[in-house]
Design goal:
Layout lengths: L2 H18 L3 H15 L2 E10 L4 E8 L9 E2 L3 H9 L3 E3 L23 E7 L4 E10 L7 H21 L11 E14 L2 E14 L3 E5 L6 H8 L7 E6 L2 E2 L5 H11 E5 L10 H9 L8 H7 L15 H13 L5 E5 L7 H18 L2 E5 L11 E6 L2 E7 L12
Parallel strand pairs: 9-14, 9-15, 12-13, 13-14
Antiparallel strand pairs: 1-2, 1-6, 2-3, 2-16, 4-5, 5-6, 7-8, 7-10, 10-11, 15-16
Helix pairs in contact: 1-2, 1-4, 2-4, 7-8, 7-9, 8-9, 9-10
The structure holds adenosine-5'-triphosphate and magnesium ion (MG).
């Protein structure tokens, strides 16, 4: 297909995306996804300027580097220069470009070579920029591709103007766990199969991060590594500034016991113990547990402490399993499809409890789900594809559990 025709189609798809998708950050994310694919690129990001701090921060990014926590001063780095001047930039050799800031992508898992960066203008101001990085085939970007990006940016700016956008990307978050170039291989036949192919991801304190991705892409494997349930083959895992890539058995046991709580699709309660006893049983294993009664009350089951699992609904049983995770006072709760076996109403009950844990206990929750609606509750949505991080999106306005509909 002729280049210009191809780009006309891409422009149409971007327009549809921006006009038809209700949620603004979703629409922007979808548009940049179209461009990254159309320009056969490795990465892309949409940066927004927070007028309070005069700093830019990524709302959404595609590609293997986790830049969620990066912010740049307006005027600095190529992103800052474009936002400050309002002029597009095409970079042919980033590493030798004096404006280039290597700490943005390069320290987070992606070596920047070439780039297009265009301003996001509304009627009066530059409100950020759109950036596309590295053609996959190593070639340079051309004028026409730059124009497509500019077109996308102006369409996006119109939508932003129409729908209104208050940018408050929050403070820089403290990192709880950090994965860098994490590789996981399993033995397979005569050789090995590589399931995680270089994961770069930071998980912040007190955030709710949702992980999406097709079956078999490596979500559970990644969570199990973060939770000390499995070992990585290569790369690094840092937990609270400590290298945890190759823990000893003793460290691992302590970590699993004291630090993480797990919630699975199957509740795995002991059928011959009451709700309270199921929770007490775990409390006895840790040094400084929460009062089991309190843990049960937090999941709204104070009246049902003495029920056996067989006497409770699926949602109630799942809440007991959440209480069992909570009673350890873990820093991190890992939830692998916790609502997959539940109907809508009980799912919302369980999700409300999880929301409360993040908001009121200061716990970090990382949750895998196949339900894209649930992702609207998250602070960040991480998409995994074929053993790599495909994209990370911040929700500007996370929904409450009760607002979700499916
Ligand atoms: N212990 C193991 N030994 C060998 N292969 C494994 C092992 N665990 C996972 N795999 C393989 O790794 C790949 C990723 O599995 P994983 O369970 O992480 O996927 P997932 O994204 O959680 O999928 P789902 O959405 O179906 O739960 C799959 O191809 C799976 O067969
Ligand atoms: Mg899984």
């Amino acid at each position: 297909m002729e280049e210009s025709k191809r780009f006309t189609k891409a422009t149409w798809r971007i327009m549809e995306q921006l006009l038809e998708v209700d949620n603004l950050d979703e629409a922007l994310a979808g548009s940049i996804e179209i461009i990254v694919n159309e320009l056969n690129s490795e990465a892309g990001a949409i940066w927004l300027l927070d007028p309070k701090t005069d700093r830019l921060s990524p709302l959404f990014h595609i590609g293997p580097a986790d830049i969620s926590n990066i912010s740049v001063e307006n005027g600095l780095g190529i992103e800052g220069v474009v936002t400050k001047t309002g002029e597009s930039v095409m970079v042919t050799d980033a590493q030798n470009d004096p404006r280039f800031d290597g700490t943005i992508f390069d320290d987070n898992g992606l070596i920047t070579k070439t780039m297009i960066c265009v301003p996001l203008n509304n009627l009066h101001d530059v409100i950020g920029c759109v950036q596309i990085v590295n053609k996959k085939d190593g070639s340079l970007y051309d004028e026409e591709e730059l124009q497509l990006c500019e077109r996308m940016a102006s369409l996006a700016a119109i939508t932003i103007d129409e729908k209104g956008l208050i940018v408050d990307l929050g403070e820089k978050k403290e990192i709880l766990a950090s994965l860098r170039n994490v590789i996981k291989e399993f033995p397979s036949g005569d050789g090995v199969s590589r399931v995680l192919k270089g994961i770069n991801l930071d998980i912040y304190k007190n955030e709710f991060v949702v992980v999406l991705g097709e079956s078999g892409c490596g979500k559970s494997t990644m969570m199990n590594i973060v939770g000390g349930m499995d070992f990585l083959t290569d790369g690094t895992l840092i937990i609270e500034n400590k290298d945890f890539s190759h823990p000893t058995d003793a460290e691992l046991t302590k970590f699993r016991r004291e630090y993480v709580g797990f919630i699975f699709q199957a509740y795995n309660l002991m059928p011959n113990l009451t709700a309270l006893e199921n929770v007490q049983f775990i409390a006895e294993l840790v040094d400084d547990p929460m009062d089991p009664h309190e843990a049960i009350a937090k999941v709204g089951l104070a009246q049902r402490e003495n029920n056996y699992p067989g006497q409770m609904s699926g949602g109630q049983q799942q809440r007991v399993s959440i209480a069992r995770a909570l009673v350890k006072k873990p820093r991190l709760i890992l939830a692998d499809e916790p609502t997959a076996a539940l109907d809508y109403t009980t799912s919302i009950e369980v999700l409300s409890v999880i929301e409360d844990i993040v908001k009121n206990q200061g716990t970090t929750v990382m949750m895998v789900t196949h339900n894209v609606e649930i992702a609207k509750m998250a602070d960040r949505v991480v998409k995994v594809r074929n053993g790599k991080i495909a994209s990370i999106k911040k929700n500007l306005h996370p929904l409450h559990a009760e607002e979700l509909i499916w």
